[in-house]
Amino acid sequence: MIVLKFGGTSVQGPEMIDRALDIAVSRMDRAPVLVSSAMAKVTDALVKATQTAVSGDGAGAAKAAHDIIGRHITVAKDFLSGKNLEDAIGKIEDMRRALLALLKGLALLRECSARSSDAVLAFGELLSTTLIAARAKQRGYKAEFVDSRVFMRTDDGFSSAAPDMKAIAGLAKQKLKPKPGKLIVCQGFIGSTEEGVTTTLGRGGSDYSATIIGAALRAEAVEIWTDVSGILTTDPRLIPGAATIPRMSYAGAAELAYFGAKVMHPSSIQPAVEKGIPVWVKNTKAPEEPGTVLIPVAEGTGPRAIAFKKNITLINVVSSRMLNAYGFLSRMFAVFEKHKTPVDLIATSEVSVSMTVESSASLREIVRDLQEFAGVEVSKNQAILCLVGKNLWEERGFFVRVFSALEGIPLKMISLGASKINLSLALAEEHCDQAVKLLHREFFEQAATQPQDSPR
Ligand code: ASP
Ligand code: MG
């Protein structure tokens, strides 16, 4: 069987839902399970409706609910007719009543627990999948709507509930019986506790739902259908010629995720990683494009992508006390822990440590605390540039190519990942774009003309 997950923009209206269905039914012989997000912006609208209710504005919250429901009714009327339309409208009207009642309760109490919020947010996915399943039937396909809460068992950590993989594996086998010729339609993002209370996996959780289902049913593949054609060699806003990376390891994708390659969040593919299930990232608007497949181990060697992040602060800590001493690093990191600031890149020598941090909210306090035991230098407006690939420094001439391409650009720090999948550099923000262009040219634009293994 195969899992196909469609994001909000991929199901945002009748035309997109039809595209999504075209894709899903083209995999009918592979026993497809379609997992959908709420239509674009619906979850945000539900969050707002909740806030409006909590502020005591019951009428405003009700209006927001009517708007959300109205959007789905419009789509239903656009592409359904006869009994399919009647059934769908019936279900949507039931949801309208339930949603209005919930919001009214929140407005009266002027309070919303995470548990209540999950109950409200779940309507987004329930509404979108009601339309998708109805439309599939309208088009003559054998389709089955399944409420994911019957198998997506979670703990009661409302708003970011943790799935109970073992229970889900059992329940999914009972409740979802994928088979060729039938399309199963279910919701991402939502789940339920053992007692049957609605939960959510956290914002953006539908990808996670898809890989959980894939792992539970041992899918041959999970396909994430979104609005980009996979993961690119670099940011196309900077380099219009950036190309899609055809195959990449899970680990490489995780490195890129930090840099805002927002395509896949590492934690959301973890269930697929554990079972070695390939995860495809594909474009609903251009399904013929191959996209990117994430696999356990990438083939070959060499760089696959260049990522970068600006607005970074570089902190240098220097202390002669570090020499031959122990405990220094732990004391230093305790400062970052105290101020809840993640440290991203690190390079150390015997007497100095260079680090980068992203958020400088508590920078002043961090510096003050560090200065109690070491000299501290801070440079703002820095950038991190990262080459991600496979066995980078096993590739002959790799470092020579990197540093000769970057000749003339002052680098502040170099950090090699122990897994040989990334080389990260810190440099002044003003040099970042140029450095990315030079490296992209060196590794991705002339690759065909440059003999990769000739000594240089
Ligand atoms: N609809 C949810 C959200 O917007 C979940 C998802 O789209 O993945 O956060
Ligand atoms: Mg989303």
Q: Name the poorly predicted regions.
A: 448-456
Strand tally is: 16
What is the typical, i.e. mean, pLDDT?
Answer: 93
Give the name of the CATH superfamily of the largest domain. Acetylglutamate kinase-like
Number of domains: 2
Number of helices: 13
CATH architectural arrangement of the largest domain? 3-Layer(aba) Sandwich
Oligomer: single chain
**What CATH first level of the largest domain would be assigned?**
Alpha Beta
Query: What is the topology, as strand order, of the major beta sheet?
Result: 3-4-2-1-7-9-10-8
Intertermini distance: 48 Å
Strand content: 15-25%
Q: What's the CATH topology label of the largest domain?
A: Carbamate kinase
Shape: globular
N-to-C order of helices and strands: EHEHHHHEHEEEHEEHHEEEHEEHEHEEH
Strand pairing plus helix content: what structural class?
A: alpha/beta
Query: What is the makeup of the main sheet?
Result: 8 strands, mixed
Cα radius of gyration in angstroms: 25 Å
Small molecules bound: aspartic acid, magnesium ion
Task: Provide the helix percentage.
Answer: 40-55%
